[in-house]
Amino acid sequence: MTRKMTEKKRILTGDRPTGRLHLGHYVGSLSNRVKLQDSYECYILIADAQALTDHFEHPDILQKNIREVVKDYLSVGIDPEKSTIFVQSMIPEIAELAVFYLNLVTVARLQRNPTVKDEMRQKGFENNLPAGFLVYPVHQAADITAFKADLVPVGKDQLPMIEQTNEIVRRFNSLYKKVLVEPEALLGDFARLPGTDGQAKMSKSIGNCIYLADDAEAVKKKVMRMYTDPTRLRATDPGHVEGNPVFTYHDAFNPNKAEVDDLKDRYRKGAVGDVEVKKCLIEALNHFLEPLRERRARYEQDEKKIDEIIIEGTRQARVVARETMAQVRSAMHIDYPFLSKGE
Ligand code: TRP
C-alpha cells in the first residue's frame, strides 16, 4: 500500500458509533464511499468523541458499537485495503486542531447552525446546552481538515457542517497561511430516505429504521408495517406514489425499473393492493441485503480481523494528521523550534 505516494484526491467521512447503520446511511453516504474508494484516497472516521457530545452519560456504548459500525462498512463493500478506517479519539491531533479553530468561530455563528439547532431541540438541550455539543461542528471541521479532504460524502443534514468547515478554513488560511483545504460535500442520489413510519428520515431513536444487519424476517415485518398512502382505504382507490415511502424505497433499491413503473402505474389507477407492492419491496430489499449478510457473516467468524483493521487504519490516519498538525503549528508560528531542539 503506497497510498501516501499517490496523487489521488482525498475523501473523509464518518459516522457516530451509537448504533448500527441503516438503509438511510447507505443511500446518503455509504454507497458513494464504496463507489469512490478506487479513485480517491478514502478516510473513514468513527466519530466516538462526537458521539459523546450527546451520549456523555453512556460512554460504555462506544466500544461495542465501533466494531458493529466497522462490520457495517465491510458488509457494504468498503475495502480496508482501499479505505482507511480509524477511531477519532485515538487521533489526538484532531482535538488539538479543534482547540485552535475554536478561536476562529463565534458562539453566535454556532448557535445559528441549523443542524445544531434541530438536534438541540430533539435532545432537549435548549435550557442546559453542553458546551461540547455546541462546538461539535468545530471538531468536525478538525476531522475533515486534519486529512485535507477534498470531498465529504454525507447526507443532507450534514451540509451545514461542511459550510462551517469552509468558513473556518478560509479564516485560518487568510489569517495565518494557506495550509488547509476547503472541502466539498457530496450528496448521495437519495439525500434522505424516509423512515418506515413516513417521517422525514430514518432515526434510531424513533425506531423507524431498516438496518443493514437486519435478517430477511425483520425486513419482511418492517415493510409489512410500513406507512403508505393514508388517503387510500381500498386497493381499488387511486393512490399516491409521490411522497409514499414504499415507492421511495422501490426507487432506491429495486433494480427492476419496469416492475417499479408498472406498480406505480397500477397504484395510481387503483389496480394494485399495498400488499403486492410491499411484497415486491421485501424481495428487492432482501436481494440487496443478501450479499451484505454474507460478507458480514464471513467477518463475524474472524473478530480479530476487525480489530486489526481498526488498529492499522488508526495508525495510518495518525501519520497524516500529524503532518497537517505540524504545518498548522508552523503557519501559526507556534511550532517553537527552540523547544523541540531538546527532544
Ligand atoms: N456528524 C456526522 C453524523 O452525525 C458524523 C461525522 C463526524 C462526520 N465527523 C465527520 C461526517 C466528518 C463527515 C465528516 O453523521
List keywords for this structure.
single chain, 343 residues, mainly alpha, Rossmann fold, Tyrosyl-Transfer RNA Synthetase, 3-stranded parallel beta sheet, two-stranded parallel ribbon, binds tryptophan
Write a structural description.
With 343 residues, the protein is mostly helical. It is 55% helix and 7% strand. Strands 1-2-3 form a 3-stranded parallel sheet. Strand 4, helix 9 and strand 5 form a beta-alpha-beta unit. 38% of the residues are buried. The mean pLDDT is 94. The structure holds tryptophan. Tryptophan binds next to strand 1, helix 8 and strand 4.
Blueprint (SSEs and pairs):
Blueprint: E1 10-15, H1 23-36, E2 41-46, H2 48-55, H3 60-76, E3 83-87, H4 92-101, H5 107-112, H6 114-123, H7 131-134, H8 136-146, E4 151-154, H9 159-175, E5 184-187, H10 216-224, H11 245-253, H12 257-269, H13 274-300, H14 303-331, H15 337-340
Parallel strand pairs: 1-2, 2-3, 4-5
The structure holds tryptophan (TRP).
Tryptophan is lined by residues 12-16, 45, 47, 50, 140, 143-144, 152, 154, 158.
